[in-house]
Amino acid sequence: MSVSYIISVQINNKFTKENFKKFITKVVNTTLVNEELEETNRNKKKQYLYYGFNDEKNKIFISFYWYINDNQIIIFLPSFKNTTSYSIFLMQRIHKVLEFGLSAYKSDNIDDEIDKFSQQKLDNVRIWSVNLFTPKEVKKYGREKLLNAPCEKIEEWEDGAIFMMINKDSFESTFEQREKLRKYLKE
Questions:
Q1: Hey, is 122 helix, strand or coil?
Q2: Strand runs (DSSP E) across 38-175, as ranges?
Q3: Stretch 124-129: mean pLDDT, rounded?
Q4: What residues does 132 pair with on adjacent strands?
Q5: Which of residues 119 and 32 earns the better pLDDT score?
Q6: pLDDT digits over 2-48, tens only?
Q7: Rounded distance between C-alpha atoms, residue 83 and residue 103, angstroms
């Protein structure tokens, strides 16, 4: 299995095919036509729209999936020299477009946790190795609490969002570290 960096966005409002197109257009700064979106209706539980973007500058291919029934966008990036910094840059762009919280992780680092905790969320926010809390979530959990979370890297962004990485400059963390952060945020 190849290693991917995965960014997950839980959509908190009504989302449409047009919204998905606009989202991709703004995030990767490209023009998008309907024919470029692949759609599946094979399994009503896993309906999705897909768009593949070839970033020629960085020589990588990015996959965007919007899982319609879950109202979740998942973005897959391959591992390459600058994946961590590029992923953070992409998260910043995504946040500016959607203003929703994000989480991210490295695919070979999650083990069976995705299955075990796929339904376990912190008030509809998934907690993984890298997390972004919107200004609304910051108010809810408390700015000081988030700024003092058990993470090596925590930044407050211009709009009041708080970005955190459990391990500085890495999308990897242990189950114990992720569980410690989840418990801390639930207190």
A1: strand
A2: 38-40, 48-55, 60-67, 72-78, 102-106, 130-133, 153-156, 162-165
A3: 74
A4: 102, 163
A5: 32
A6: 668 999 988 878 889 899 989 999 999 887 666 678 877 666 667 88
A7: 15
Strands 162-165 and 72-78: what pairing?
Answer: unpaired
Residue by residue, DSSP assigns 31-62 as: ---GGG-EEE-SSGGG-EEEEEEEETTTTEEE
Torsion of CA 120, 121, 124, 125, to 10 degrees: -150
CA atoms within 13 A on the CB side of 73: 27
Q: Enumerate the domain spans of the chain.
A: 4-108+124-186
- 75-109 in b/e form (b: 16+ CB < 10 A) is bbbeeeeebbebbbebbbebbebbebbbbbbbbeb
Three-state DSSP class for 67?
strand
